[in-house]
Design brief:
17 strands; alpha+beta; 6-stranded mixed β-sheet
Length: 429
């Protein structure tokens, strides 16, 4: 009996190759080259459409670098392709996109256990892996929406900063009108600071959108720079409103609120600051706020077409559908953000499908690993669910007594890699 995999992007290619390498017959469907999305330019599999960077390769100092090492140890095809196609990029892992796609395409086409079918799939199967990504074709997207409800398209997300980098002396903890349990850190601004911030925000350089990403944006996803351009007081009467808050006995002129991103309070989201600014501009402009003058950004805000589900309502942590356990979803449609994270979800999905075929109990990598933490993130109830990339904030805690950040991250990485080896042995051993 064969395993159906729909979509030969990063996630689908990882899942298909891993399963084939471990003796499973795989039928891999992809609509290219007969049909392409507006972003695709070739008929090759696993095409990188936005960038040639897979972000930091620092295993012991960067969460995405650690995730890549976890993937290498789990047998990742895309990490092999990245090494083959690597180009100089300092501490980042960047690739020649043509060589990268060639490597993956050749390995899948040559594999004796993989049969590639160049065909658009327009409806969900009853079982198998669906990994069609943020550019899922219209017909299949419609069927997914019919099955699961809300799909998000033009999406903007706010930056996330590490808790330890916030200037706490420039914040206060309070909920508006005293309602709540002190879940927000408030960053007050006086008039001069606020007006300078708004001026910088409206004049900052924005990221360029592809044609397929242009169009109406939901009001709830309105970039903060667009709101600010409507008038200098728009933010003060919107997400930066100071009403119901008191700082040193008076109401501030404006307040940016920071909301905890996780239970460990290791990361904070900039509330209401969805943005389409370039990453360097985000750091420059938001660092004008006194509490964020030394902020370390764990995730920058982005705006793009991003078809993804309210996954916590529909998926288990092993990426199976709650009411259809033989059907799995992988890739960015599940709510992971980024090339590496998407590939990782496909790889771990392959492990889960293989484990089921071998009669193993359901095993999810622990939350002390990046791949396990991401798996749990997309399956954990969250009223404000948005896509997430690899960052230390989602990892289970530990080593808080180690004051040196580099040493603490090294310890977190060593623990994660040990746990990944243990998980691998449980499935393959």
């Amino acid at each position: 009996m064969s395993v159906t995999v729909i979509g030969a992007g990063l996630a689908g290619s990882e899942a298909a190759y891993f399963l084939a390498e471990h003796g499973q017959e795989v039928v891999l469907y992809d609509m290219k080259p007969g049909k392409r999305s507006p972003a695709h330019v070739s008929g090759k599999l696993c095409e990188l459409v936005c960038s040639n960077s897979l972000k930091s390769d620092d295993v012991f100092g960067n969460a995405c670098g650690l995730l890549k090492e976890e993937m290498r140890r789990l047998g990742s095809l895309t990490m092999q392709a990245a090494e083959y196609a690597r180009v100089p990029a300092g501490g980042a892992l960047a690739v020649d996109r043509e060589k990268f796609a060639d490597f993956v395409t050749e390995h899948l086409k040559a594999h004796p256990h993989v049969r590639i079918v160049e065909q658009e799939i327009t409806s969900l199967p009853q079982e198998g892996i669906v990994a069609t990504g943020p550019l899922t074709s219209d017909a299949l997207a419609a069927d997914i929406q019919k099955r699961f409800g809300t799909l998000h398209f033009f999406d903007a997300s706010a930056p996330i900063v590490s808790a330890g980098s916030i200037e706490l002396s420039e914040t206060f903890t309070e909920d508006r009108y005293g309602r709540g349990t002190g879940d927000y850190l408030n960053c007050p601004m006086d008039r001069e600071t606020y007006e300078a911030f708004v001026e910088a925000l409206t004049g900052a350089e924005r990221a360029v959108l592809h044609d397929f990403e242009r169009g109406d944006v939901f009001e709830g996803c309105m970039p903060v720079e667009v709101m600010a351009a409507r008038g200098k007081d728009t933010l003060r009467f919107g997400p930066f409103k100071p009403v119901g808050l008191t700082w040193k006995g008076v109401r501030p002129y404006a307040v940016l609120q920071l909301r905890k991103e996780n239970a460990a309070s290791a990361s904070y989201n900039l509330v209401g600051c969805q943005t389409n600014l370039k990453f360097g501009e985000q750091k420059r402009v938001f660092s004008m706020i006194p509490a964020l003058r030394h902020a370390e950004f764990e995730r920058y805000g982005v705006m793009h077409r991003n078809t993804y589900l309210e996954s916590p309502n529909f998926l288990n942590a092993d990426l199976s559908v709650k009411d259809a356990p033989a059907l799995f979803l992988a890739g960015q449609m599940t709510g992971v953000e980024g090339y590496v994270e998407s590939a990782a979800s496909g790889l771990i999905c392959g492990y889960h499908v293989l484990g089921r075929a071998l009669g193993k109990p359901v095993l999810v990598p622990p939350a002390t690993t990046v791949i396990g933490a991401l798996s749990r993130y997309i399956a954990t109830p969250n009223s404000d669910f948005t896509p997430m990339n690899a960052n230390y904030g989602i990892l289970a805690g530990g080593f808080e007594s180690v004051r040196d950040k580099r040493e603490r991250r090294k310890l977190l990485a060593e623990r994660a890699l040990s746990e990944i080896e243990r998980f691998k042995a449980q499935i393959l051993g």
